[in-house]
Amino acid sequence: PDALSLTPSNSFHFPQLLSLTPLLVISSIYYRSRYLCCQITVNRRRRWIETQNTMPFPTATAVLFALSCLSICFELRSLAQVSSPLLPQEEVEALGKLQNTGWNVRRNSCGSPQWNRSLSDDIECNVTCDCSFARGTICHVTNVAVKGFNVTGVLPPELGNLTRLTELDFTRNYINGTIPPSLAQLRNLTILFLNNNSLSGEVPGWVLNSKDSFDLSYNNFTGRAQPSCQQLDVNLVSSYSSSVSNSVPWCLRKDLPCPRNPKEHTFFINCGGPRERFEDEDYEEDLTSNGRSNFFSVSERWGYSSTGIFLGKVDADYLARNTFGHNVTGVYSTARLAPQSLKYYGLCMIKGSYTVKLHFAEIMYSNDQTFSSLGSRIFDISIQGKVVRPDFDIMKEAGGVGLDITEVFDNVTVDGNTLEIHLYWSGKGTTAIPDRGVYGPLISGISITPNFPVDEGGGGLSGGAIAGIVVSSLLVVLFICIFIFMRRRRKDDGNKLRGLDLQTGMFTLRQIKYATNNFDPTNKIGEGGFGPVYKGMLSDGGVIAVKQLSSKSKQGNREFVNEIGMISALQHPNLVKLYGCCIEGNQLLLVYEYLENNSLARALFGKHENKLKLDWQTRKKILLGIAKGLAYLHEESRLKIVHRDIKATNVLLDKDLNAKISDFGLAKLDEEENTHISTRIAGTIGYMAPEYAMRGYLTDKADVYSFGIVILETMSGTSNTNYRPKEEFVYLLDWAYVLQEQGNLLELVDPELGKSYSKEEARKLLNIALLCTNPSPTLRPPTSSVVKMMEGKAPVQAPIIKRGESDASSADARFRAFQTLSQDSHTNITNASWESSDPGQKSISMVDGPWTMNSTSSALSNDDHDNDDDASHLSQPSSSARLL
């Protein structure tokens, strides 16, 4: 065996040795024949050899035979090395993708010393193979354990090729990225430890539904979360980024934020045991035995997290009892233990200084002279992330087995709302005496008491309490007076609200504060027309968007009242739905439906990570939805409304990318004047119709003009307000006119669409956009006609805008298309035709003449020009939706 080197390093197996038996027999016969021939020849020369006093014949023969045997051994070793079992190439490639492991992976690497490097049981880089396949010629990787080895990068998808893998452990490394979907193919995987890394994205469903031992705690996941904190076999405590929404349970978020007002200050826990009266205090029971890698909390007051699995004892008990009859009582007769890491958390605690007492007693070893007395348990104790007792040995500190010891830590500070006690096994001590699995941290009891006075209530009132009651009474009287004064001051606004026929529900301020986590800045999703917008979650799980009125000006209150009045009367699939409102104290709030895909502007022009890939059919659907929503506002609803601020940021998209028009705060509700037209100019530069921006003249055709701009933006994927000083055009509309004159209108189509669109449909939509943006309001089609043209129920012909040659040559080419904006009555249109929305009105066609028809909104009266100075209030273009 020494000559053949039959060691695990080259994986030579006994079945291979049997296969070489015929070769051994033949070699033995061959060399035996040579020996006999040599003997006959040498007998003849014996006398000469003796006379020469040379080496005796038996010695020479023995040397020759030894050399022959040695040659056979070398041949057998060479054959054994050639026949060593090999890894499949796909498994070699999978292991080679891991970074910073130091592995030089080859097909014959199984058993290589470089694959088994352990500085301790806490820091290791090990790979285990099973070479029993195909009669010992094929190996498969079954275990990969790389713990605390500073591995970086991402988990390679090729790990899914390790089909025989049963354990994958990357505890305490620097792995980022997401969990590759290919790991779901590992049907034999029973242990998956990815805790204490930087993984992000979504936790896969197959992980959440697993019944095996999975630990993904302490990561940075941001995707969909499990609905509950109590997961029996999957530990996800503190595994989600602190930036995630409130929809993620508190126990899964970083630093375990308190889901309610902090009020806890005292804990007494009998770790691993029942309720116990000990040292004049009632210790709570801690009897859950969920097993390996889990998190458990008690009424969101305190909890624990266990990590790891005992070597050789997958189904080990994680509760210890006094089985050796030690003379211990109270909390010391039981204990909780963990294979690697055990954390206890004090939750929702009042900020301040505390005293922490930890009770220990070694009850799993005996005190006799058997093997059961030879073990040792060593682990580190950390409080609030700081190691306070390194290499803590219970028996050494207590003076022996079955003796108790209490470690006291004064002045433990709680700055947030969580106190963390961490017991961590770093691989020291014994793991196999008296039994495999008897190691790791162990604790019998915990007591946490405050170092500051706590008001627990009493039988009488102190002087301070009496003074507090008196002051409170005075404050109540003062508040009543202020309330009466404010109520009279808001009487007019209250009358306006009571006069509205609201079709919505009413929400309390308490409900909305709970839904938005008291208007947490992390829930802010945009800035509306007159205040911020927050995402919230109601108690029934419904997601809402809450618009909060800004208190900067009285104008906001008026617009708020108007918006409630109008939206409560409007119900259409292409309008943002209003769920209700809240009018309480100085808070004026609107509660809308929450739309998952934000605004059309962000989908088209947002940052790369926010943009959506909108195909041709989706863009058509969005534009048709906007047109139908406007037609409802202008012609179909009981209240004829001009929106005045149609733009891409005010078009929101639901989860199915259906368009919904938002932000009606600019329109005015005035029942006495029986009109919904405001004299105050408001809107966004780049979307406003020229007659409205220059002279304050407003009809529903102003919305038609803005919609034409939105069509151009959606078709081209370019913002109309994106100024280009070095190009031959200033605005997108200018470019469209130039291309229309050149006959190259299809150059506007977004290059991201490639060739996956209909040129005929694109040309039709672009022509509709030019019709809608005609400088003359009387020549723009009504929105109902626009809907018919988009649905193919009415003909569309390209408009032709004529200018004099002198005008074209005397001005900058970038501004030629806008020379007619101040002279809209002189613009000539040819070859334009559409059908009126009025069934009694005939289709109108024109050639070289103005088109006139009744507008759906009347012109302004002379009084509408009283506030010309309000033009200075024009809002600038915004990159985020004003409503949501």
TrEMBL record:
It is found in: Membrane. PROSITE patterns: PROTEIN_KINASE_DOM, PROTEIN_KINASE_ST. It holds the Pfam family LRR_1. The chain crosses the membrane at residues 465-486. It catalyses: L-seryl-[protein] + ATP = O-phospho-L-seryl-[protein] + ADP + H(+); L-threonyl-[protein] + ATP = O-phospho-L-threonyl-[protein] + ADP + H(+). Residues 828-884 are annotated as: Disordered. GO terms for cellular component: membrane. Its EC number is 2.7.11.1. This is non-specific serine/threonine protein kinase.
